Amino acid sequence: QVQLVESGGGLVQAGGSLRLSCTASGRTFSNLPVAWFRQAPGGKEREFVAVINTIRGSTTYPISVKGRFTISRDNAKNTVYLQMNNLKPEDTAVYYCAARFGDALITPNRYEYWGQGTQVTVSS
To answer: CB neighbours of 75 closer than 8 A, spacing ≥ 6?
Structure first.
């Protein structure tokens, strides 16, 4: 079993930066891919933001955040980070981290373990 807790969300002006953290407990998750998803207000579907694999820490991003967001992991601290730079109002959402056994995927319904989410609000 893996428990995930996100932190680091908040209110920031457009162009600003935030760093989100996802800390795991229950078991070591250095051998699990970890992804970030976000869900914008208004009942929109959960959207893939970034994923980091276990093998050499390879990463994948969608075009919407590539070049602005960076995912990284510190296995000694059981923590995955999402550095978000040049934030835009359309980045406003609840951000979730998720982990799974197996391949690093970008589909949210393939992830078994989820955090409770952290709100990110970007003002224009």
So the answer is: 28, 30
The CA distances from residue 62 to 8, 43, 94, 106, 114, in Å, are 21, 21, 17, 9, 20
- Ordered per-residue pLDDT tens for the chain, 124 residues: 899 999 999 999 999 999 999 999 887 778 899 999 999 988 889 999 999 998 678 999 999 999 999 999 998 899 999 999 999 999 999 999 999 999 999 999 999 999 999 999 999 9
Torsion angle, CA of 120/23/76/27, rounded to 10 degrees?
Answer: -150
Rounded-to-integer distance, Cα 11 and Cα 92, Å: 9
The 3-state DSSP class for residue 90 equals helix
d(CA 53, CA 90): 26
95 neighbors 81 (Cβ within 8 angstroms): no
